[in-house]
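Form 7-S
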Amino acid sequence: MLSESVQTVTRQKEGRSYDVKFQESWLVYFKWLVYSPSAKGGYCKYCVLFFAKDNSTRTKPGVLVATPFTNFRKATGKDGILTSHEKLQYHKDAMMAGSEFKGCLNNPEQTVPFMMSASNQSQYEINIHILRSIVDTVLLCGKQNISLRGHRDTFSDNTLTVSNKGNFLAILQLMASKDSLLQTHLNSCHRNASYTSKTIQNEIINIIGDQIRSSMTGCLSQEDAFFAIIADEVTDVHANQEVLSFCLRFLDNLNPEQPEVKEVFFDFVYLDKTDGESISRAIIECLSKRGIDITKARGQAYDGASAMSSSRVGVQARIRALAPRALYVHCNSHVLNLSIASSCQIQAIKNMIDTINETFKFFHFSPKRQRFFESILDKESESHAVKKLKGLCKTRWVERHTCYETFYSLYPSVCLCLEEMLHPSQENAHWNWDRETLVKAQGLLSTLTTFQYIISFVIAKNTLHTVKGIAAKLQKNGRDIYEAYQMIDDVRSILKEMRTDVDEEFQDWFKEAKQIANKVGADIKVPRYAHRQQHRANAPADTPLQYFKLNVGIPFLDHIDQEMSSRFCEENRPGSDLFLLVPSVVRKCSDLHSMNNKLQFWKDDIPISLSLPNEIKEWKRHWTIQQPQEDPTTLFEC
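Output:
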């Protein structure tokens, strides 16, 4: 109760003393008045809270505001303190401000800040909706692998009549036809706030790329995460710039129950130069920019160019200066291609390959010739699943073998087509050919119907068939290195067996060549013999079979075996010491001390390197008592 907290004040007047106190009735009459027990007086709650320092009358606050009201004897009346205070302008202003404040508390939705905030929130949601539509359009173009921009890519009045504004704007306009908010934005926004310019598109693409990159390589942030670098340089013919294609290979162990070897594209980096210093700097900066520690690199895979492979100034040497255990591996698929390419330098094989390519271009670059070839195929009794020759890929030898298989299936038809061009039958007499076509057709037909060409083609096709499988497998993601070398060794063994049994093998090849020769009308004979032959092998022989076996078959097999043996020898297998951990290998290992010395290269990657000898012994003991059929076959499974 107020009466309990109000203190009595004793006053003296004319020798008499009397007691006065704060009256509770004042609080009822003056609604703005409050009593403060600590100050032993009253205050105007509105003036205390809402006094305007910059009031128009420049009045300084006094009793009831700056000091408490304690002269209770002069409270009311004509000149009473409470009565006079109520008439002051700053009190009236404070009362009005207080009333507005209470109104804001009771009805906040009526306040200006709230209405501004609601308007901002509404605009925010509209902007998010529009931005989401723009981002979704960029994502769609990216997923469908289609370009974003066209001849004109703005919404200005000058381009309203342009028929092709590009895929991005075309898709966005289609979405706007069903979305009134997006339509309003595109039609009425300021030119500098449309968010459809090429600059915004590129920013969105970069943001999406960063998100994808982070999600793919998130596991590399772990302390024990290691990776390998895969890079290759190529010329962008459209931009006329050198571009580095940059990939990473690593073990994704975020899910320990299902670890996965991943090989992911990481970035395209434009290069000013293509020397070792520039390329290595680009790789290091790219990794640093994405927060990946270069010292965790444990492998490098490039081609054999000196800028990449040099042990002094190449990329691999500069990377190893920062990551000493990042072993350089010449891409095995590339090495395989080099081995085959070098073997195909035998003159007979080289001439055969050139003729296949010329035949492909003869039909490929002339729609008329291709239509005529297809008409010949349609008239044959045997149906053909493929009606077009394939060209020889310069880099992927698995594609070259597909070319050989296609050419083999269409060989008689190609010769018949060329024959019909030169000597048309009555039903093909309406086809008219220019002189260039006839001259080329004559040259190709003459070459294709010689037995030397036919047997060279059969030899190359059947020999390289052994390489087709491994050429495709070596380019698969997640391929284990031990498994890859095992496949390479298996192919080498097959080639050696073919060389050992060349007499038997060549009998089958010669029989196959004779069948083709009979279909195209080729004579089975030995080329003219000369004592001094410079442009082809010319070892003497009694029969065509012996001649082509000695001059084409055996040299081709020997070249391939020699090339693969030299390029895939033990010295050219960096990191092969890890193969000692494969159960089938460690079970046969008798010198564990030597094995321990070889594995010391990776001692800093082992939690307790001093325990490595004991770990090796336990590892061998474990697999010695296991059944061989239970052995893991790859390093990853180990």
